[in-house]
């Protein structure tokens, strides 16, 4: 898996619009991005190609519904022979052991473990939300604190400050 590189120096407003659309859903077609952003299909294709060539877009990823997954959490005494595609996370602990978060199919591997749990769901706390970069839907800057959410036309817009919130609401009223 690769991720969208979020240091965004000197990007145009159009480039930010395309990146924002891809960040929300990396499986959008050029036509869908064009419709969402109001930028022509040819220009969207050129922007994506340019951002890929410059290394700003390093690849695309899939977001899974973690609530539907069953994961296995195990404490093991050291490295074990489990295929990488089954291991979601591997934490090296200070006592030399490893805490592994794995796909449920790893249970079929019969690996030696000290502790083992099966998880039927996941909930993220505020700290995890803060690790996800968001871009202001009005000015295009990266939102570094909790975003202000503006609801309009069955969509959520994220803004970085009260000024952007005011200006976005004003613009959305004009478009209605």
UniProtKB/TrEMBL annotation:
GO biological process: response to amino acid
UniProt source species: Thermoplasma acidophilum (strain ATCC 25905 / DSM 1728 / JCM 9062 / NBRC 15155 / AMRC-C165)
PROSITE patterns linked: HTH_ASNC_2 (PS50956)
SUPFAM superfamilies registered for this protein in UniProt: Winged helix' DNA-binding domain (SSF46785)
GO cellular component: cytosol
One Pfam family, short name: HTH_24
Domain of life of the source: Archaea
Protein name, entry field: Transcription regulator LrpA related protein
Entries under SMART domains matching the protein: TRASH
Occurrences of domain HTH asnC-type (ranges): 11-80
GO-annotated molecular function: sequence-specific DNA binding
